[in-house]
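User: quick one, sequence for these tokens?
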């Protein structure tokens, strides 16, 4: 099986004019695959020049764990969508991935898998409002929030889209000034 998430250029004709194929995904969906598709042999599958255009999104690839201590399946409908939270082995860091099918939807997530009494910084890499896997796959937005085990999130996923979240344990000084979910 080929584990090659992280494609940021979806239009293959830009690489080879004779190839009119298209990766049916958004950048946010590609980031989420690092969490939803288990493999301790991850890689960055695209060309360096494509990552250089989106270094803020590439940060998730640099941060995401590759081996997991715990996995929590938050929501799923076979053939339509899945949302998974995974705790990185030997850390208190969590990562959430949501991959979505062709129908836009809003995920509803409770962060009750986080350790009670601790604060975290959640960095959300999500589809932008106008994202779509065919017409605007590179549209994304990145937001940061303060979260804990009582936090809840409603997050939209575009057609062929999704979202990825890094959740890093933080002290009170680090979360100061961040909006709470």
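Assistant:
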């Amino acid at each position: 099986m080929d584990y090659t998430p992280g494609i940021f250029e979806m239009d293959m004709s830009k690489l080879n004019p004779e190839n009119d194929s298209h990766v049916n995904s958004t950048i946010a969906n590609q980031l989420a695959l690092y969490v939803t598709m288990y493999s301790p042999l991850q890689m960055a599958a695209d060309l360096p020049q494509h990552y250089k255009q989106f270094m803020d999104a590439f940060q998730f690839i640099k941060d995401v764990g590759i081996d997991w201590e715990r996995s929590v399946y938050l929501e799923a409908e076979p053939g339509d969508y899945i949302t998974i939270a995974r705790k990185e082995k030997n850390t208190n860091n969590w990562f959430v991935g949501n991959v979505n099918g062709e129908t836009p939807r809003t995920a509803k997530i409770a962060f009750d898998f986080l350790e009670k009494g601790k604060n975290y910084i959640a960095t959300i890499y999500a589809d932008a409002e106008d994202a779509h896997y065919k017409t605007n796959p590179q549209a994304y937005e990145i937001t940061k929030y303060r979260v804990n085990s009582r936090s809840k999130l409603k997050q939209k996923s575009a057609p062929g889209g999704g979202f990825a979240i890094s959740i890093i344990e933080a002290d009170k000084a680090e979360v100061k000034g961040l909006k709470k979910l």
